[in-house]
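Hey, I'm writing a tutorial for new members on how sequence and structure tokens pair up, and I'd like a real worked example in the thread rather than a made-up one. If someone can provide the structure for the chain below, I'll link this post from the tutorial.
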Amino acid sequence: MLQSRNIPGVRSFAVRKDRLTPPEKIVLEDRLTGEQAVIGRFEDGKMVPQTDALESLGVQMLRRAASSRSDWVVVDEIGFLENSSPAYREALRELFVQKRVLAVLRKAETPFLNEIRANRNSFLFDLDDVRSIIIFQKKMSK
């Protein structure tokens, strides 16, 4: 059984002034160390990737997770910001080879997200699909 607080990996979250305004920034956080890096900033009406942060601290976080003793790693979430960083995408690819990864993917169409979805070793579960949730609940209740 997975204990969520002990699973290495990364999580990203939006920082907002309030629920009605766009996010000011997107922060990437190491799940074990708490180290953080700003990977996106809202500028001129759009979210702008912070490529340097992805390629330095982001890659370090993924490599730390890959070298952990855990068989499982969590990556929450993968979206469009990763498109700005070939090094971060490569570190994610390596992580998928080295570990079992529970990843949350945005419902966006990007070449990298499509690559992950097309991988024959990926199992995709759409939480927005009500029928999938019902099937999942039935399987879990046995």
